[in-house]
Each structure stands twice: as C-alpha cells, then as structure tokens.
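Long-time lurker, finally posting.

We've been working with DUF4438 domain-containing protein (Saccharothrix tamanrassetensis) and I want a structural starting point before designing mutants. I don't trust myself to interpret raw outputs, so I'm hoping someone here can both generate the structure tokens and explain anything notable. Sequence follows.
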Amino acid sequence: MTPRTNAHRLLTQVLAGEVCPPRGDRFGYRVDGEGRAFLLPGMGGVTLGVRVGDPATGHAADHLEPGLSVWHPDPAADHALQFLTCVGNEVTVLGPRRPTGRVLGQHAYVLVDLADADEVAPGDRVAIRARGQGLRLLDHPDVVVKNLDPELLPNLPVDTAPDGRLRVSVAARIPRSAPGAGTGMASEFANTDLMGVTDVRIGDLVALEDQDHRFGRGHRAGYMAIGAISTGDCLLFGHGPGPTTLFTGPAAAFDLVDDPTANIGARW
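Top reply, 14 upvotes:
Generated this for you. Predicted structure of DUF4438 domain-containing protein:
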C-alpha cells in the first residue's frame, strides 16, 4: 500500500522557464581524469536520443543532460526552478502544439523528459506545475522526502513493509566511495555525481550508502539516500551519472528490495 502523505496540504505553483542553449567557452576542450583532452556535447539545449529508461552511460558525451535543459535567465527565478520543481512535475512547452513532458530531476538546469523533444528548440518557453516540496510520509517520520511529485509516488515501487519500514525497490546499491561532485550542496539543487558507476539507466532508482541528504549532501555512517538517475556520462574527474534525491534518512528506516527494473520511466 502506498504510504500515507500530507499531499492534500501541498500547493501547486506554475513556474516559467525556457530551454537553455548549450554554452561553451572559447577554449572548447576539457581534460578528463587521465589528462586526456576532449570536446563533446553534453549540458544544455535539447538532447535527443536519450530518454528515461535508456542507458545513462556509454555515450560520446560529457555531463549528459537528456531531454530538455530548462532554466530562467533571471537568477532568482532560476533558483525557484531548481528548488521548487520535483521529479514527475508536468511541463508544458508554450506554443501552438503545447507538448507536455515530465521533470526528470535537477542538474545545472531542470531536466525534462519529453516524447516530442525533436520539435523543441533552445529559447522555447515552458511552464512547470511545481508541486512536491514539503511532502511528508505520515507513517515514516524518520524518512525525509525531497524533490518528489506526490502524484508520482503511488506509481513507484514504494510501500510500507510489515515491520513498519519504508520498502523501496532499487536497481542498484551505490557504495559509499562513489559520491563525488554535488557533495556539500543542498539536496534540492542539482544532483549527486557518482564516480565509477556505469551500469545504470536514466530514471533508475538507486540507494546511496552512508549518505545523509536531509540538510545538504554528505557522508554520514548509518544513513541512506535514495534517488533517481537524472544525468549521464561525465568525463571530468570526480563526476559521473547522478541521481536526484527522493528519500533520505537513517538506513534502519528503509527495507531495500533489489530489482533491476526499478525505474521511474515505466511509471510516468
């Protein structure tokens, strides 16, 4: 049974943004962890060919952001996009056809999975129905919910175990040595890059061992964070595919079930 929540108390705010163009600098090349120079596509714009459910790695890319990369050119409005959007929020591209998609997570931008992404271009405006921050699980007081649209929760492999713990199916368990870039940041902003993790898909639910994301992101023995992979290949040292945090709390509060199919994509 889906855990009881305070969803009826949450507000919905419509946020405005636009598809950000890919951006670079005049030098072009970056250097990977072995000192090799590379020049590859990645952040920003509209990235075709990778959607939720597809492999997150193995692409000729750096800081891969699937789908639409959405921002707002006003810094304060952009921070609202980052902090208030949640995985599963509905996104509408404003135009004659008004195609709709769903928020995948946050990175440098808010990432949107959209079936008709090939009809969208940088500069196109979007509206996001932001809802989810402030969501609580009423029967699991030790578990903090982050970045999750309450309408997505009933479709996730999440329920209450007979012993009262929060049972969550995960496609992978991430060792404590993997978290890199993103550590120390607010867990409602961007995501956590995972070093050395290669066999995951966009949208996979993963469990991060000894990670406490209640008041930021950092190592804390005996805690756990569970998120959905929202970004793909990264070649810079200390970077990698990354999950957006959905649940966090003491490890003892969770009952994990290993399931390689645990992915938000089949549950939109």
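Before you design anything, note these points.
Residues 7-130 form a domain with the Thrombin, subunit H fold (CATH 2.40.10.170).
The first helix runs from residue 75 to 84.
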